[in-house]
Specification:
Radius of gyration: 21 Å
Order of helices and strands: EHEHH
Helix content: 40-55%
Structural class: mainly alpha
Number of strands: 2
Strand order of the largest sheet: 1-2
Shape: globular
Oligomer: single chain
Amino acid sequence: MAHLAGFFVCARLVLHPDTVPGEFLKLHAEIRKLDVDGFVISAAGHSSELATTAGQVRRRLLNRRWALLSSLLDRSAVARLARDSAEIERRLLPETEPDDFGEGAEAG
């Protein structure tokens, strides 16, 4: 239906530290049979070792444009994670009084 509506169809494959390369290649081959327009391959974690492996897999399986899109999405996810964790550290919890949530307090 997405193709008929004029949309591109993209499959996202996530590379985990314990991913078996042979099975990852088989999954890629099976999904290609479904007539998708492209693939995005991303790393499940943010370790340098996993990022290196993801880069190698992208170079092997993807054309230049899809590989670039995959790496851009990974970088934006890392940047967002860093920004979100910094915001969480800066947020302070409001002071509450013991009676605020005591027995018989009404929600609403």
